[in-house]
Design goal:
The protein is α+β, with helices and mostly antiparallel strands. The chain has three domains: about 55 residues, Orthogonal Bundle (Helix Hairpins), CATH 1.10.287; about 190 residues, HSP40/DNAj peptide-binding domain (Sandwich), CATH 2.60.260; about 100 residues, HSP40/DNAj peptide-binding domain. The protein is rod-shaped. The longest helix is centred in the first third of the chain and has 18 residues. Helix 2 packs antiparallel against helix 3. The C terminus is likely disordered. The structure holds zinc ion (2 copies). The site of one zinc ion (ZN) has 7 residues, from loops. It comes from [Candida] railenensis. This is Mitochondrial protein import protein MAS5. InterPro entries: DnaJ, DnaJ_C, DnaJ_domain, DNJA1/2-like, HSP40/DnaJ_pept-bd, HSP_DnaJ_Cys-rich_dom, HSP_DnaJ_Cys-rich_dom_sf, J_dom_sf.
Length: about 475
């Protein structure tokens, strides 16, 4: 059906006097008796059309029904049934409302049944939100050391700048949606069992939950009634220095906008890829560094690493300083920057200075290979050079064996031994005390005892 107002060439806000006048004018023009023979057929159709339009628009009740539903076939504000899918008026009315306030919605319901749909008290109702968007990136330890700004192009929906989200032209006549009677929600009857139905409140599909409608010719041209338009912009996510992998940067309200909804956030999640040299522990950094035994004893002065900001770090050991197995060289404040607590203002002595963790260099001492000497004399030289006695008196006492208690004949000499590295030692599973009692009662245990026997003894070559 064409728009009845357009047929009568009047505005949708026309008074009944204006409608009457318009009808009379058109009826005269298209009256079959007033036109030529050739024009008669077209004129008859046109005359019928304007008469029908007039009949509806001149009667207050019919016009109201037509304004709301776009038809006069008698669909009233009945609850929307499950089977009743789709919206027959979509083509005629675009859903929309001008500056619709969520408040209006709830006030309406408060006055009606004492509560909003769903039965929850009004204060507990949260404004609906558009979805958050998530972005995942991987950063390097260098990035986290220096801080990084990640730029990303964002295309999102924003509320139409022309219609301010109503979807309709500025001067459009906004009418209360007849389906939901302006509430934005309709009752939906759901069958839950034989003879059993339940009522839910769902968003009105005619007005898309806003409670107001307008005529299709009043649709906003910019957003074509969608109420939102696309916006593309560059977003900047700032990863503060000292951040850790697994943290997030949240840009509040940068997700899609939608009228009546709170705008969601864009969340950038970042992970840190493992570094080849550095291991991070809290705000401290660890590296392993290998030196020779001579360096451990006589010291060294050299660049040992390239730091995360590109600086070279040179270590000069003071003369006479000995590096021992298990030693770490600790360089204060050369670790990661301590992430500033944004909740504390630096004005009040929060984190005004740049704090840094420490750098630990784990010293790995490489001993010379067997038969390292060039001449046998070298061994004598080093024996004479290095102290030959243990430093701790307790160690000396503990390891001194009373020679009187050991006659020479009772001493066995072992020199063809093997050296077992700590990581190559046999693995032992400790038996729990409760289990030990069972061993002699279980048949298979006897056989394993038999296998153990003499072969299990350590082999030692004797000289
Ligand atoms: Zn618009
Ligand atoms: Zn509605």
């Amino acid at each position: 059906m064409s728009d009845l107002y357009e047929i009568l060439e009047v505005d949708s806000s026309a008074t009944s006097v204006e409608i009457k006048r318009a009808y009379r004018k058109l009826a005269l023009r298209y009256h079959p008796d007033k036109v030529t023979e050739e024009e008669r057929e077209t004129a008859e159709l046109k005359f019928k059309e304007i008469s029908q339009a007039y009949e509806i628009l001149i009667e207050e009740d019919k016009r109201k029904e037509y304004d709301i539903y776009g038809t006069t076939d008698g669909r009233g504000g009945r609850p929307e049934y499950e089977e009743f899918n789709g919206n027959p008026f979509d083509n005629f009315y675009g859903g929309g409302a001008q500056n619709f306030e969520q408040e209006d919605f709830y006030n309406f319901f408060n006055g009606m049944n004492g509560g909003p749909p769903g039965g929850a008290p009004r204060s507990a109702q949260r404004k609906p939100r558009t979805d958050d968007a998530e972005l995942d990136v991987t950063v390097t330890l260098e990035d986290l050391f220096k801080g990084k700004i990640i730029k990303s192009t964002s295309t999102r929906n924003i509320i139409c700048t022309t219609c301010k989200g109503s979807g309709a032209k500025k001067n459009a006549v906004m009418k209360t949606c007849g389906i939901c009677e302006g509430s934005g929600t309709v009752r939906k009857i759901r069958r839950v069992g034989p003879g059993l139905v339940t009522q839910d409140y769902v968003e009105c599909s005619t007005c898309h939950g806003v409670g107001k409608i307008y005529r299709s010719k009043d649709t906003c041209k910019k957003c074509t009634g969608k109420r939102v338009i696309e916006e593309t912009k560059i977003l900047e996510f700032e990863i503060p220095k000292g951040s850790e992998g697994g943290e997030k940067v949240v840009l509040k309200g940068e997700s899609d906008e939608y009228p009546g909804k709170e705008t969601g956030d864009i969340v950038l999640k970042f992970e840190c890829e493992p570094h080849k040299v550095f291991t991070r522990k809290g705000d401290d950094l660890y590296i392993k560094y290998k030196i020779s035994l001579v360096e451990a004893l006589s010291g060294f002065s050299k660049v040992v690493l390239k730091h995360l900001d590109g600086r070279g770090i040179k270590i000069s050991t003071p003369t006479g300083k000995v590096i021992r197995p298990g030693d770490f060289i600790k360089i204060k404040y050369e670790g990661m920057p301590v992430k500033k607590d944004s909740s504390k203002s630096s004005w009040f002595g929060g984190n005004s200075a740049d704090k840094r963790g420490d750098l630990y260099i784990e010293m790995d001492i490489e001993f010379p290979k067997d038969n390292w000497y060039l001449e046998k004399n070298d061994i004598t030289k080093i024996k004479n050079l290095l102290p030959n006695e243990l430093q701790s008196k307790r160690d000396i006492e503990k390891q001194t064996i009373d020679k009187g208690s050991l006659p020479e004949a009772n001493i066995e000499v072992f020199s063809d031994f093997t050296i077992a590295r700590a990581n190559a030692l046999p693995e032992y599973t400790e038996k729990k005390k409760e289990e030990q009692g069972h061993h002699f009662y279980e048949g298979d245990e006897y056989s394993s005892y038999g296998r153990a026997g003499p072969g299990a003894q350590p082999e030692c070559a004797q000289q």
